[in-house]
Write a structure and sequence with these properties.
The chain has helices at 2-29, 50-61, 90-94, 100-108, 123-131, 161-169, 195-204, 227-235, 245-252, 273-277, 300-307, 311-320; strands spanning 43-45, 64-69, 77-82, 114-117, 136-151, 158-159, 186-187, 239-244, 261-263, 265-266, 284-292, 323-324. With 332 residues, it is α/β, with parallel strands linked by helices. It folds into 2 domains: 43-143 and 286-324, Periplasmic binding protein-like II (D-Maltodextrin-Binding Protein, domain 2, 3-Layer(aba) Sandwich), CATH 3.40.190; 145-277, D-Maltodextrin-Binding Protein, domain 2 (3-Layer(aba) Sandwich). The strands form 3 sheets. Strands 1, 4, 5, 7, 8, 9, 11 and 12 form an 8-stranded mixed β-sheet that branches. The chain has a two-stranded antiparallel ribbon with strand order 2-3. A two-stranded parallel ribbon has the order 6-10. A hairpin with a 7-residue loop joins strand 2 and strand 3. The chain starts with a helix and ends in an 8-residue tail after the last strand.
Length: 332
């Protein structure tokens, strides 16, 4: 009887020891050992991934944060760090968002260490990287989607994939052809190499090309930032354009012009967290963390790249509002 009790006691101690080891391992995983503001990697990214980059830094460095509407009166929301210990210029030099194309070029040119972007390299960016002898590792870590926007006065609430393609190929020219009023459709596009424009070309148009649609307030101007898309559609009731879902739901929110704009369903499926996660919405896209293939594995940048693929990293991605990818990427 005593022997049985002793075996039971040893088993119980081993059980709690394993539980304690797992808890300690999970605690360690919530940060990166040795990371400080001074050795934090140079991070860049897309406009839409700025909140995620900010949140990652705050989580790893132990800083408080909050969502806050811009003080400039444009209504755009940002995730703002709240800590007295933040070094001056940390979030303009160490962690920044110079837009997708610039961030990718900065990574190729070794002006940044790691980027989180709304897309992979475009063909001309690949050509540039090859010309400089650089290759990138691009790993999906989150899901987003490209959503289509109309003025709220437009009676159309859903289009098919084919109808979207036909509008942007110039085959469908009036809204009454797709269930709306007899008004000429005014398609807008973003500037070349912007994250949303490249997403449009790849996942919607299948790289088949599009006519040179209007891209800004006049034929001589472009839409330089995504926020301007909403101003365009607020002015033009017969317009149509596109934007990343995350940007619309978390950053633009109630910015100037946003109240006049609506997302529409595609093939009867409205873009939301559920339809993006289960990929029933037709235009789901990956968000990538990218590094140079020659990055030293002992650097904080590489450790951050690895950490983003752990459960702790996925939890932060989820907290930001993005949907983490389901698959686990095996690390070296």
């Amino acid at each position: 009887m005593k022997q049985i009790n002793l075996i039971w006691l040893v088993s119980l101690l081993l059980f709690f020891s394993c539980i304690n080891e797992k808890i300690n391992a999970d605690d360690e995983q919530n940060t990166i050992e040795g990371i400080t503001p001074d050795n934090y990697p140079r991070v860049d990214g897309s406009t839409s991934t700025e909140p995620l980059n900010t949140l990652i830094a705050c989580k790893l460095l132990g800083w408080n944060y909050e969502w806050q509407k811009s003080v400039f009166g444009n209504g755009i929301w940002r995730l703002v760090p709240r800590a007295e210990s933040i070094p001056e210029n940390f979030f303009t030099e160490r962690v920044k968002s110079t837009q997708t194309h610039n961030a990718i070029l900065n990574l190729i040119d070794n002006r940044t260490d790691i980027i989180i972007s709304a897309r992979k390299m475009s063909e001309n960016e690949k050509d540039y990287a090859q010309s400089t002898g650089v290759s990138l590792i691009e790993t999906p870590v989150a899901l987003d989607a490209l959503v289509f926007l109309l003025n709220r006065q437009n009676t159309v609430n859903s289009l098919t994939v084919r109808q979207i393609q036909d509008i942007y190929l110039g085959y469908t020219t009036h809204w009454d052809e797709v269930g709306g009023t007899n008004e000429e459709i005014k398609p807008f596009i973003r500037n070349a190499n912007s994250g949303s424009q490249e997403m449009m070309k790849e996942i919607v148009m299948n790289n088949t090309g599009m006519p040179d649609w209007t891209v800004g307030y006049t034929d001589d101007e472009i839409i330089p930032v995504m926020a301007a898309v909403y101003m365009e559609l607020a002015m033009y009731q017969n317009g149509i354009c596109f934007t990343p879902h995350y940007y619309k739901e978390y950053i633009i929110r109630d910015a100037v012009g946003a109240e006049f704009v609506k997302s529409i369903a595609i093939d009867g499926i409205y873009p939301d967290a559920y339809s993006i996660k289960n990929k029933t919405y037709p235009f789901v896209a990956n968000v990538y963390v990218s590094i140079r293939s020659d990055l030293d594995h002992n650097t904080m940048a590489y450790k951050l790249y690895e950490w983003l693929q752990t459960q702790a990293g996925k939890d932060v991605i989820s907290e930001s509002g993005y949907i983490p990818v389901e698959t686990t990427v095996l690390l070296n």
